[in-house]
Amino acid sequence: MAISKTIRPGLIQLRVVNLEESVAFYRDILGLDVVGQTSDGRVMLKTYDEFDHHSVVLRHAPESGFDYVAFKVVDDKTLEELKEATEAFGYPVDVASDEQPGYGKRYGFTLCTGHRIELYAEVAQAEKIPMLVNPDPWVEMPRGMKAQRFDHLLLYGPNIAEAERYFKEVLGMFAPEFCNTPDGKRFAVWLTGGNKAHDIAFVEYERPNTIHHHAFYLEDWNAIGNAADLIGKYRVKRDVGPTRHAITRGQTIYFWEPSGNRIETYAGGYAAYPDNPQREWTIDEIGRGLFYYEGELFPSFLEIVT
Amino acid sequence: MVYEITDLTAETKYPAKEEESLFRAMIRSGKGCIRYGCEGGGCGVCKIRITEGEYERFKNMSRAHVSEDEEKEGIVLACCVKPKSDITLAKFKTT
Ligand code: FES
Ligand SMILES: [Fe+2]
């Protein structure tokens, strides 16, 4: 059960400049299944281990980047309450008009960071789901990197202190870890609505509406090694890793898909509880916080967003 | 075929295979004016101006980083083009 009013980030839509190559990458390298296409040609995908209709949508566009992320909330009543609370917080809310097959009503708004965030309560079950009776770990042998779920995302934009306040005050999430600048301003924050170490994270950045990465969960460190082998074999452009984050303690690799959106494959991470004390990173140690084995930052990791 | 890249920004030369992007040639040689990037036409970090030589664009480039007018002038993303002859290039500087 969710600890807050949100269950998970359940849907992300991304823009891709090279649609065919990107779809093939999500399918063959990450191991997602193609669920189908919308009437306007967007491609819906899901992992083998997810139950909902689809979790990732790729939209062919002249620029790569982020369209929106949608959080599943516990029920319809909560959805209506959150719509009111979002407007009371100061963000005008609309009803999403683009088709997302299988999805019920989605409310959306623009966060101060420039990103579109959506909320929904209803989504149909997918045709292919994990087994429910005497279940095997999988139904069909997982492909490629064997991504298990869309796990979290990191967004870059201005005024993340306000974004954090929205996610805490309205959605009821909490922040297990944060990093401030020496003058006490938020530089980065990791937020969760459940026991996952993070559902969403923000880094303070001048340009609005940019995405640093979206992440898929892998089973363990061995799976990260398998993912690294695929990166080598298929000449995937790697950014950082395999390594560990001290922040959230997850094990990780970052790389780019064929339209230039950064993807993380992430395993492990601690269980977050809202009553645990918050962990803090000082900015002079943030390199070690992000890349525990290397102990330093990489310019590509800091500078490249879509 | 292997072509020669003259990199005005890095003030050096390196080879590029006809089947690889200019970006890949830069990374492989370790000498190019671009050291990292998404290799997907999305991030814009590899923006260059090609001043001499023939090339082929084999991937779409994000219009957030290269406009159609720029593309006509030989301004491209190095990860989206392959050489068809020896090439002279420079890193694109935003003024
Ligand atoms: S390296 Fe990102 S656009 Fe070429
Ligand atoms: Fe991440």
Descriptive account of the structure:
- The complex is a heterodimer of chains A (306) and B (95).
- Chain A contains six helices and 17 strands.
- Chain A is α/β, with parallel strands linked by helices.
- The mean pLDDT of chain A is 97.
- In chain A, the strands form two sheets. Chain A has a nine-stranded mixed sheet. An eight-stranded mixed sheet of chain A has the order 2-3-4-1-5-8-7-6.
- Helix content of chain A is 19%, strand content 35%.
- Chain B is α+β, with helices and mostly antiparallel strands and 95 residues long.
- Chain B has a single domain (2-91), classed as Roll (Ubiquitin-like (UB roll)), CATH 3.10.20.30.
- Chain B has two helices and seven strands.
- Chain B has a five-stranded mixed sheet with strand order 2-1-7-3-5. Chain B has a two-stranded antiparallel ribbon with strand order 4-6.
- The termini of chain B are far apart.
- The relative contact order of chain B is 0.29.
- The mean pLDDT of chain B is 96.
- The chains are: A alpha/beta (306), B alpha+beta (95).
- Chains A and B meet through helix 6 of A and loops of B.
- The site of FE2/S2 (inorganic) cluster (FES) has 13 residues of chain B, from loops.
Explain briefly what this protein structure is:
The complex is a heterodimer of chains A (306) and B (95). Chain A has 306 residues and is an alpha/beta fold.
Strand content of chain B: 25-35%
CATH architecture of chain B: Roll
Strand residue percentage of chain A: 35-45%
CATH class of chain B reads Alpha Beta
List keywords for this structure.
heterodimer; A: about 300 residues; alpha/beta; 2,3-Dihydroxybiphenyl 1,2-Dioxygenase, domain 1; nine-stranded mixed sheet; globular; B: about 100 residues; alpha+beta; Ubiquitin-like (UB roll); five-stranded mixed sheet; two-stranded antiparallel ribbon; about 15% helix; binds FE2/S2 (inorganic) cluster; binds fe (ii) ion
